[in-house]
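Hi U.,

Before I forget, here's the chain from the pilot set. I'm dumping it here mostly so it's searchable later in email.
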Amino acid sequence: MIVCPWCGTNYTEFQSNCKNCGGIMQAAEEPAGPAVSTGSIPVPPPAPREISNQYVWRIMTTDGWSIAALVFTLLGGIFGLVGAGLTLGFVTAFVGIPFMALGFAWLILGVSLMVWRYNRTLKVVEVLRDGVSARGEIVDVQENFSVRVNHRHPWVIRYRFHINGETYTGEVSTLNPAGRDFRAGNVVCVLFLPAEPQWNCIYPHP
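Structure:
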């Protein structure tokens, strides 16, 4: 059994890249630079690590802000088009103008949120590609019932780690069920950018 280190997808045969997230995979019989694990904590291969930019979209599908941005963008587009159509008619213009204004406002809000979350997710991919590893600890695991994707609620995993006497925290969202590896108090591997430790992520990304 071969497991993708980026998203946890299982394969019975070797794949050069994960079909689910696009991340590069290492054959079980081939060493991946350093040891695969230290104790029970996985250690990533040395940076830079190959990871598909398409992984950005996979992360965003479990992000509540990104989903909200998509909803606002769609509603804004619909209301804007309906409002513009009603505005063309003299009798319905008094209804169309408020519809169009509300639609444009939602559209601007949705697009702004989407750009913000996209840029943040690009930073997460940078962490997975170039980050340095540290020992961390799971603080809390909660199911986010305010968001529903494909009939599932994402899990929010919060963690912390210590670098040079400073404590940093972070969180990741995943649609995969939180198993034994992601329970409060468990030790995990955290990747972070040395110049910006506030940018960090669990490895492998759940």
